[in-house]
Amino acid sequence: MSDSASLGEAEGGLEPGAEIALEVAGVSHRFGQRVALDGVSFRLRPGEFTVLLGRNGAGKTTLFSLVTRLYGNQSGAIRVFGRDLKRRPSEALSRIGAVFQQRTLDLDLTVAQNLLYHAALHGMPRRLARERMAAELARIGLAERAADRVRQLSGGQLRRVEIARALVHRPRLLLCDEATVGLDIESRRTILEHMRALVRDERLALLWATHLVDEVVPGNRVIILHRGKVLADGELTILLETSGQPDIGALFTALTRSSGAAPGPGGAAPR
Ligand SMILES: Nc1ncnc2c1ncn2[C@@H]1O[C@H](COP(=O)(O)OP(=O)(O)OP(=O)(O)O)[C@@H](O)[C@H]1O
């Protein structure tokens, strides 16, 4: 694990770790007196499905808000494929796709209008945008819904459109914050399969924030975030072997209990 001191960037160039999709180094963030993130560090590589697991209030959304620059980070460093977020924000952000916890599609626009608007924000020529939109909608099985208004879609379809939108500009790093919340089991399964295929076939780096332990499967890397701190980081099977815990739910409970913390407000333990 690195700290901000290890992040020396050659002037004007990329650091040697440019093949690291996301580097979060010693990042802390406060809201007034409340510490939301406390010295968080990790690195993600292309082709890695990483689950960021934490209860309500763990700091997941705050971390996503820092990586997508909705908030300016207060301490530490964030790099996207070697581009420092503070010093080269547009280069860094052009490599990120994000699906936020709060829905952000315009319900009164059509699916196509929403995606084309996003593509325009990324400066994509109209024709290229149309081609990529068609490809992404086909990939998630919604090609025939392009002309429908978003409010005519089901919750699961809406989430799939948000994922298609996040991928239109071909980012190499995808951030998904509780992207399956409120969906039925079948819709969750479809979306997770789509995500796993993207990671496997296109070597996308994916950070998947969730409070649901059943979204972690062997082969996934899992980062357990609790009260703003990383309590564990590793491939699931290895974490279970080294901790002696039978499953991810037990590991999570053991770690968060030994950190002296009880569930936060509204914070049901991950299932
Ligand atoms: N805008 C804000 N102002 C003040 N405190 C905030 C704000 N946003 C988040 N917090 C606090 O920061 C901490 C981390 O919240 P955050 O939303 O990042 O957690 P989370 O893991 O995303 O939780 P959830 O799963 O409920 O979305 C919490 O204690 C929360 O109350």
Automatic annotation (TrEMBL):
SUPFAM superfamilies: P-loop containing nucleoside triphosphate hydrolases. The keyword Transport applies. SMART domains: AAA. It comes from the Bacteria. This is ABC-2 type transport system ATP-binding protein. GO terms for molecular function: ATP binding; ATP hydrolysis activity. It comes from Tistlia consotensis USBA 355. Residues 22-252 form the ABC transporter domain. PANTHER family: ABC TRANSPORTER ATP-BINDING PROTEIN, ABC TRANSPORTER ATP-BINDING PROTEIN NATA. Belongs to the ABC transporter superfamily. It holds the Pfam family ABC_tran.
